[in-house]
Amino acid sequence: MRMLGEDLAIDLGCSTTRVHVRGRDVTSSEPSLVAVLRVGREAGRVVAAGAEAAGLVGRTGDDIAVVPPIRGGAIADLECVDAMLRLRLPRASGLGRVRRPRIAVAVPRDLTNVERRAVEESVLRAGAREVVLVPKLLAAARGLELPQDRGPAHAILDLGAGTTEVGIVAGTHVVAARTTRVGASVLNDALRDFVRRKLNLLIGDPTAEAIKRRLGSARPSDSGESMEVCGRDLISGTPKTLRIGAEEVREALEGPVAAIVGLVRACLEDTPPELASDLRDRGLVMVGGGALLHGLDERLREETGLVVVCAEDPTRVVARGAAAFLAPGAARLGSGLTSLDAR
Ligand SMILES: Nc1ncnc2c1ncn2[C@@H]1O[C@H](COP(=O)(O)OP(=O)(O)OP(=O)(O)O)[C@@H](O)[C@H]1O
Ligand SMILES: [Mg+2]
Question: Quick one: which of 11, 150, 200, 247 is 20 to 30 A from 192 by CA?
Fold first, then answer.
């Protein structure tokens, strides 16, 4: 039976698409990227997806473009997502072993009906027998193994690459939530902008990402660390290497970090006061790659008074949790965000 239809869960992230095979509890991850032909009679045809497309970044001429087809948690380019799923799913699920599986897809809660239907139809075209859309916050709660029935409420922050969601989850209900279509990739933009303005240096996104991971912090640090960054000098136009310090990086990131903190605070302000004691006891759990930003836990603790922890393996929690909604006898979705509602 299993050979014929292992259930899958997909987390269509802006930076990474994760496919979780429920029966085997494995998750595969590949960049949410496709390579598309730009010229000729076949313009628009997708020639590579995932890791293969990422390998082409910076190595193609004008004839091939590598594009991210998911933006702000929604499908920005339908044909590209279709192709990405068609190319990815057999690979993720063990080469043709899965025939017409049931597929759960984790989606942000602010998708419009049209955007939800686009996700659903794309996954059906990729070969699903049935599609269940699961709000990412509920998927995260399941992935974190929080109590399902009448347990205490928890606060969850999912800081992805292109979306930020924070919500108060009680059982299978999202009691209060805030969502923005801006995520941790905006930290890279802030860094690039800072380095251009203050150091007259143009840097690429991979350089900004490396600086963010190494020196990025949501709090002041007195480590005195610094690193070399290579870019193009704005004035001479030639390659140049400069040093950037941790304190400069913190200054560059402060605006977007304050916006993340503001979103969490706004969500807490929307939370019914009856849940205050739950939150005080249970605190806030962070998931998503942005949760790995140094000092974010402590900064949020200082500004909200809650206990803040980063989930173990924070980028996989959502895919794993979405799969749980396909288990026999899985709790029905309290927030009513199911595939049927989208019709
Ligand atoms: N150590 C780190 N410090 C800061 N940011 C990090 C770190 N590691 C990863 N990130 C950031 O996490 C983001 C990716 O997180 P994640 O994989 O959860 O996003 P996603 O699921 O693809 O996007 P979304 O959920 O918004 O659709 C990227 O912006 C990446 O730069
Ligand atoms: Mg995500």
Answer: 11
